[in-house]
Request: fold
Amino acid sequence: MPPLLGRRQAALGLLASALTLTSCGQPEEEILPYVNKPDGLTPGVSMRFATSLPMNGYARGVLATTYEGRPVKLEGNPRHPASQGATDVFTEAAILSLYDPDRSRSLRQEGRVGTWEGFEAALLPRLAAAEARGGEGVRLLTGRQTSATLLRLIGGLRERFPAMHWHVHEPVAETDARAGARLAFGTPLTVLPRLERARVILALDADPLGPGPEQIMHGRAFAAIRSARRDRPDSLARLYAVEPGFSTTGAKADHRLALAPAGLRDFALALAARLGAGLSAPDLPAPVARFLDAAAQDLEGARGAALVLAGPWAPPEMQALVHWINGRLEAPVDYLPPPPEQPEDLPALAGALRGGAVDTLVILDANPAYDAPADLDFAAALRETEAFTVHLGPWRDETAALCRWHLPQHHPLEDWADLRAPDGTASIAQPLIRPLYATRSAAWLLGLLRGRLSLDSYAAVRETWAAQWPAEAFEATWRRVLHDGVVPESAAQPLPPPAARLPEPPSAPQAGLTLLLRPDPTVWDGRYANNPWLQECPKPLTRQVWGNAALMAPGEAERHGLREGDVVQLHAGGRMLEAPVLPLPGMAAGVVMLSLGYGRRRAGAIGNAFGANAYVLRRGDALWTLPGLRLAPAGRREDILHLQEAHRLEGEAQELLPERPFADFLDHPLEPEPKEPPTSIFKPLEPDAPVAWGMVIDSTLCIGCNACVVACQAENNVPVVGPEEVAKGRDMHWLRIDTYWHGPEAAPRPGFQPVPCMHCETAPCEPVCPVAASVHDAEGLNVQVYNRCIGTRFCQGNCPYKVRRFNFHGYADGQEYANQGEPIVAAHYNPDVTVRSRGVMEKCTYCVQRISAARRQAEKEDRPIAEGEVRTACQSACPSRAIQFGDLRKAEAAVSRLRHEPQHYALLGHLGTRPRTTYLAQARNPNPALEEPEA
Reply:
């Protein structure tokens, strides 16, 4: 760790910070607050605005909290169909990416700092010459586009350059899904499953609850069909999963079957044959046949509310087969019209570059030099071309470094834009802060290509929607859309369910080891690799941070003589990659799984050189599944960092996170009758306290996505400590999600348990503090008085829940990790929360600053705090509504009602700590035909 700053250095740092942040302020154009537009800005009082953020090209609606034009927190917009009031880890971490010191700040020409005037002088003559050729040689490369404005501008480019080619590249694309829809329906329809209308779901290597643009939507739907309540005992839908790897959806399934790709194919064919497909049903092993019989009977019995899902990585024939199955089941699926234009793909562009057919190439915020399939060798094609290459992006990444011109781009929170959600709902994104650097927008660059030299994104977006709304109502509609965050009645209209054709059976996969590639739950496809909140966010199931690993079943690792941390060589398709081994129970035999997004070389100070670059093995004809994998030991080891190991609780999994069928909880409640509190040395809490804050966490609904973890970090100024400190067990997260494993190793049933501070009424941390830094307030909160704390850590040692965190260094006060001490990073701090210093203990506060704000508002209006008025950051973020917070003194409050559910219990309740944070145990809805007694 570097030494702490002296006073003179700190003063200079504050001066530099002030100079850096002079651009913080409201954008020049008018933007509208989400709730009430104040007459004037009140210093120190936050304002909220509705906007949208892109994820793989799709919109996620957010409400942004700003202080004097400085965004500090993002939460879901309840009016937006893709967020519905919740967030995911990528949304929460977008704040930190805005203030990333590694963001591109200046235009570059051949690696040197250039000028915008010089770029225009170089580009415009080439465009004039290209126009004379009809646009021959002009190529445009983008990611997936749902923006009505950018699509309109691209259409205008075609008018100027009729022979222009537009290419689209997304590392995590819908290519196979659209090809499967074309096989089944004759056109590449967009297929949107409606989980909230399903009663039986079968996921065939699909992960709707995993990371992606639709995770929040599916999380909300999951909550609607999996809330186990005493008054709705039959409300639990049943979930089956068949998969080669281990997904979040598989972890939440009532029944899960681990099958290698060949077994998965046979299972799908046998299911189709069972439903009358007229195919020859493969012979299945007895346990698989038993699973199939039970699942098929359930699906057929729930016709109209039965749904089968295929993952986006399934081959087109499997996708089409699932469409046919869903047609037979009359499944709850919306079929949306396909995009109006199907751009060309990346291989066509690579071929054109090598063939000398490209004169001018413009790349809009894409990074194919890093994330293109290895067999394209796109980086070499870009490096060797004589074309005029331009890259527009927020970071000077691997692709930017190979282009002749790199243009720094606005961050989405600095720019006007429009986007569509997966269901087609449009929203308009408004900037929350003036651009921090000399950056430009995609709309400006497309306008320049069209010949409009001064088009800005604000004017471009308004032009788009002015053509769609009545002129006399435009301004009123514009203001309403900015206020609400969505364009009303803009969702795509579902088509009548088409008849699906039965495809040819999927070809049998090659025998032997298979490598599966999947998006990473924290860095996705690599675009978020430079965000330290996400790098230090643990992955579901493995709890790994700061890297990825080759996941395989423990038996598979044993067969190859491997154990955790051994580095193995992965040989596939004539290429080799080294990665550490991490055995994971529940993986199918003969399968190795590796996540994308690591091994970056030009991500920045945070993301460079962590993990293994899975793109090295990816091929155009095998984007997700690579057969013929060969393993060879590399002869060395790497430490794999896990967060849970340092905070593991004492006890058996069934004690810490009970898991049973819901019917069993109804017959045998965990807390059959209230018990008298044990004799205690603690003084009883004030009986006339105005409120008694408490929290209930429903383990059945928790999907382990970590949105709550990153939301807490953003809200409460929780620092990043880096991999070296994590290895010592010194992470600073106030909230963690523990994973517990039930059942045998061959067929485990994981459970997720968020663990914040319990706010015990008889808190063991309080009597051991010699300076009374850990005390109770009048409302029952266990509070930490920072300016009293002298760092004895007695409270941490006496906490049985291991939720207290100690600042061993000045993690946010002069000894920050990597570049997190840069002045610009301090702009993300929430001014309502103290930034702690070295030697201070900290922990979850139930977001006391939000409680205080609600209390002050209620006092102004001479009323009590209303139910639901206080929502903690973790509660607001949760996609599946697993966390409820409120006043336990109100019988009608959600937390009070949940405490009367049969599966309610207190974690380590036998210790007599009387925690205010309690849990609902994990309830299942198993099929009796598949239940087996456990030893």
In short: The longest strand covers residues 58-67. The two ends are 50 Å apart (CA to CA). The first helix runs from residue 7 to 20. The CA atoms of residues 776 and 782 lie 5 Å apart.
